[in-house]
């Protein structure tokens, strides 16, 4: 097992921890106490970053590991690192204004599609070769 995808996995989880902590901080700053999930639009953007990051993690982590196993651990880690940068840009932009999230979203979704698509290719090619 390569340490590179492991490092990216740990880094992605740390990113998620940070955006989760930011929700708690925003709750205090904008006075939106649990169980409320709406209130100040600034709070709602911080919450949306956390929720979207969780949604992305569900697809990102398996895709990262499948790509690592069937294609290349180093390339998987590189794409994963760019995904993390994309998620940081997404958060940074969204914290400012919803329309500023698109560059980060685009970067991260392209990395996710690359990992998923590459995984499928890496899985299917050996299967087809076995059939031929």
From TrEMBL:
Any GO MF annotation of the entry: glutathione peroxidase activity
InterPro entries assigned to the protein according to its UniProt record, in alphabetical order: MAPEG (IPR050997), MAPEG-like_dom_sf (IPR023352), Membr-assoc_MAPEG (IPR001129)
Residue intervals passing through the bilayer: 6-24, 57-85, 105-128
Cellular localization per UniProt: Membrane
Membrane topology: Multi-pass membrane protein
Keywords assigned: Membrane, Transmembrane, Transmembrane helix
CC terms in the record's Gene Ontology section: membrane
Example GO BP: leukotriene metabolic process
Protein name: Membrane-associated protein in eicosanoid and glutathione metabolism (MAPEG)
Species this chain originates from: Limnospira maxima CS-328
């Amino acid at each position: 097992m390569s340490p590179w995808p492991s490092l990216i996995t740990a880094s992605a989880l740390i990113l998620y921890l940070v955006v989760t902590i930011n929700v708690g901080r925003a709750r205090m700053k904008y006075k939106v106490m649990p169980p409320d999930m709406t209130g100040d639009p600034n709070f709602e953007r911080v919450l949306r970053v956390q929720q979207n990051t969780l949604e992305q993690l569900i697809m990102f982590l398996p895709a990262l590991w499948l790509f690592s196993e069937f294609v290349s651990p180093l390339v998987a880690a590189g794409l994963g690192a760019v995904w993390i940068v994309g998620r940081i840009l997404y958060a940074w932009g969204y914290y400012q204004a919803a329309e500023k999230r698109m560059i980060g979203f685009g970067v991260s979704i392209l990395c996710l599609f690359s990992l998923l698509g590459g995984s499928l290719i890496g899985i299917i090619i050996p299967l087809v070769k076995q059939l031929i």
